[in-house]
């Protein structure tokens, strides 16, 4: 039986076998025992050739992104690939759309490619099914999640500080005199949930009205859904009202929809977007946005993974502050 068959039987990656043979202290006791039991069952004794084999690097990394048509994710993929290319690594870019099945299949395929590491872009991967798949196929392989959270021992997170972002937005809106503040969420994932939680807390701390059923709207993506929301919002568009959209694409749609319905921005309603990635300054008036620093997050993710490759110590998580860019929509 060869090293690859041992890895398959133990349900781990080649890199995990490498750690068990060469650096067992870096492997969890449970995983190490599973591999060692597979050695015993098959009378497998790692020899010098096997040690050399499993110590080698494939010089490949995986990048799984839920959506690359969105400029936010495309920017992340570009920055990641550029960083890894400079270090001599080949990137396998795996766009999954909204398909959980495709996400799971790409985890398996990247394990077959023996990637040295994996970057997950977005919190759509922070679900039990992905956790289980990662544990099954990529146990022991370092994983970096951008704005996502995994409990695996080899998983690390780089994320934006949503609480700090909510404080920046609310400080600005209240300084401008807005008293009725609403959140239009156009995605359904853990990252959006964190935005909701942070904004709700920041609004309540200022003694402003906050009722989840009245102040938070869950929208489908796309202009039609945002326009329908704008029509529903008309009775609420009284003086001192502002809408925070969960991304700047939707904020741009909201601006167009409100104008089409005869509202003036920012006189009748203020608009704030998230991300600062889809050139909101092309709209008039310019949209105020919370810059969530996707280029910096992606660079940090790449550098964290590279640090792991060269055996530098890294923490489990990095959180960076966002920046509010004030324009004429508020």
Automatic annotation (TrEMBL):
Residues 1-55 form the HTH lacI-type domain. Transmembrane segments: none annotated. Gene3D superfamilies: 3.40.50.2300, lambda repressor-like DNA-binding domains. GO terms for molecular function: DNA-binding transcription factor activity; transcription cis-regulatory region binding. Keywords: DNA-binding, Transcription, Transcription regulation. This is Catabolite control protein A. It comes from bioreactor metagenome.
